[in-house]
Amino acid sequence: MSIWWIGWDPTSVEEALGTLLVEEWGLRDAVATPLDGGMNSLTWTVRAPGASYVAKWVRREGTDLLAAGATAARLAARSGVLTGAPVPRRGGSDLAALGEGVVALLEHVPGAELDGENDEDAAAMGDVLARVHRATRGQAAAGALRWHWVEPHRLDADPPLRAVVADVVRQVDRLGALVHGVCHGDPAPEAFLRSEHGVGLIDWGSVVDGPLLYDVASAVMYLGGPAYAAPLLHAYAAHDGPATADLDYVDLLLRMRWAVQADYFAGRLASDDLTGVEDGSDNQRGYDRARSALLVDLS
User: Fold this and answer.
1) Fewest C-beta atoms under 10 Å: which of 2, 84, 86, 265?
2) Residue ranges of the Aminoglycoside phosphotransferase domain (predicted)?
């Protein structure tokens, strides 16, 4: 992915980051190497004498969500799960300005990404979610996305999808109280890293203050649906996940998760947002996949 849109060439970005690491974190002789960014960020591995970190940069409008992710990772780390918690600056805060955005320095979490293609991975995801949810239940993270933000009118250009999303939103709004807390927001298999230290959970860039069942439904979505997620659901319940009492509603929250995907990619298509992707076709594929998932029962 190109990072020219920041307004600097890659070499200048890395030079500016290197200076910032010295001034704000006291890391001399650190080497920053670009990683593939997420959909909304740029990241670097940072290797300093005796330690490794990850630096994460977002545009200025993403400051609140990056701060919320730092808070959430710190909360979730109380569970004993490695979460890539933030490393405070010399002044004590988690973020520092860098160009047209802000950067956080995060603890490096070792391990290989799960692929979610087997029962062992699915069970590990359920176990980790249960553990971190016990730490984040009843908590809040300033700047997090607030449940819920889906507005069906943003899909006016696609009337069949708008109607389905509006119905899902109505059903969710009629639900009684669900167990709330700080959600990871995007627990795809690749956010879970397995090492000799266990399975960690990183990439807290989509934090939600809302029903913890949203995380469970998101993981189910990434595993391919309920037919593939039984080990995850069993492990979550077996390890006393706080949203266990809400699992009867996981199918509805799964449809809501697809509605979130449709809303998200519709927004990226409308604004031609290419952060984290090669071209607009990636956004179109995301939108089409969400549309297909939501309209499948109508075909």
Assistant:
1) 2
2) 32-241
